[in-house]
């Protein structure tokens, strides 16, 4: 086999196929017909093409690594989403490096700048913390895909849940169970997804003339300890609180539930909760959380597809993909009961 300095683009151009098709054939991934796979493998053998990920990228001045920036790598939603993105990109010859911001905007900007400094092939940004980032992203010379967030005037590729519909769906479920006063536990209000979920919730209150006060909306971040601390504050005056809550994500809900359990607040008998994400723990027997699914596998695979499309053709038209939410009803929601504190220490 003779040595040659062919790149993946050279192989793709010579055979009249896309770079992703070449990668799939070489990595024995699905999505390539037997005839095309044979043609590609025969050609790369003849010309001595070596599918070395780093070498391929460096030959064009960039390494074939995608930067993946997440808010909290400990959150099962982010880890599952990262898994599906990484799996799809690996199958197409790209490696992924994950950066964890811990929801800090400063770190987010630092990691975005690293993408350019170290010549990454592209950037996938999950749950961007601030709309101010759009100006930073505009300066990048690599493909960018936003996941689970968007900006009003962002013209690039993005995939996210219909968060307004999700918030509406969650609040509507509680209203249909007879709850008249429904609260909301939010994350960062600068986050587009949280803002849209909140707006969906508020729309239900408006449509059905449900009472609420500013105190019914609790602000914080999206961490477990936040859910715990908010529940602790609510329990201090439980009889004068909403009978149900929409929480911005499952991790916050788990903290909320833990505090309720420690203080003998029975869910859903005394208080009902709905959250977002449908993480792997949500269906466990002792949790059985009612939640809005984000279809994490579809979201991850679509994000990878958008990135691969831009890597194949940087001039390709940008896409906005909106994923429809799905309410999964389990055991943390139940009918409103006017006597819900009758046999408790809160009566």
UniProtKB/TrEMBL annotation:
Domain (HTH lacI-type) ranges: 6-60
Stored InterPro entries: HTH_LacI, Lambda_DNA-bd_dom_sf, Peripla_BP/Lac1_sug-bd_dom, Peripla_BP_I
Keyword set, alphabetical order: DNA-binding, Transcription, Transcription regulation
One Pfam family matching this protein: Peripla_BP_1
Cross-referenced Gene3D superfamilies: 3.40.50.2300, lambda repressor-like DNA-binding domains
Entry GO MF terms: DNA-binding transcription factor activity; transcription cis-regulatory region binding
Xref: PROSITE patterns: HTH_LACI_2
Descriptive protein name: LacI family transcriptional regulator
């Amino acid at each position: 086999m003779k040595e040659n300095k062919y790149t993946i683009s050279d192989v793709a151009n010579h055979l009249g196929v896309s770079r992703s098709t070449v990668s799939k054939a070489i990595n024995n991934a699905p999505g390539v017909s037997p005839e095309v796979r044979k043609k590609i493998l025969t050609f790369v053998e003849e010309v001595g093409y070596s599918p070395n990920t780093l070498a391929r990228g460096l030959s064009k001045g960039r390494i074939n690594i995608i930067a993946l920036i997440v808010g909290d790598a400990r959150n099962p939603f982010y880890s599952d989403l990262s898994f599906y993105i990484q799996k799809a990109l690996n199958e197409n010859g790209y490696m992924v490096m994950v950066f964890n911001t811990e929801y800090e905007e400063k770190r987010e900007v630092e990691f975005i700048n690293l993408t350019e400094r170290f010549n990454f092939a592209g950037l996938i940004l999950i749950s961007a913390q601030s709309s101010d980032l759009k100006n930073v992203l505009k300066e990048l010379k690599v493909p960018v895909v936003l996941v689970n967030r968007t900006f009003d005037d962002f013209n690039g590729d993005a995939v996210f849940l219909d968060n307004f519909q999700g918030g509406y769906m969650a609040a509507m479920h509680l209203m249909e169970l007879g709850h008249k006063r429904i609260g909301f536990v939010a994350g960062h209000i600068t986050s587009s997804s949280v803002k849209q979920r909140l707006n969906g919730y508020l729309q239900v209150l408006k449509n059905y003339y449900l009472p609420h006060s500013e105190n019914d909306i609790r602000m914080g971040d999206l961490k477990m300890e936040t859910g715990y601390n908010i529940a602790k504050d609510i329990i201090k005056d439980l009889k004068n609180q909403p009978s149900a809550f929409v929480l911005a994500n499952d991790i916050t809900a788990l903290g909320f539930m833990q505090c309720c359990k420690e203080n003998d607040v029975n869910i859903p008998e005394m208080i009902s909760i709905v959250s977002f994400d449908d993480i792997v723990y949500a269906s466990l027997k002792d949790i059985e959380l009612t939640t809005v699914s984000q279809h994490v596998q579809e979201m991850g695979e679509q994000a990878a597809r958008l990135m691969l499309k831009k890597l194949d053709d940087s001039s390709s038209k940008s896409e906005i993909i909106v994923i429809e939410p799905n309410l999964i009803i389990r055991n943390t929601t139940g009918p409103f009961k006017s006597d819900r504190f009758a046999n408790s220490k809160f009566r």
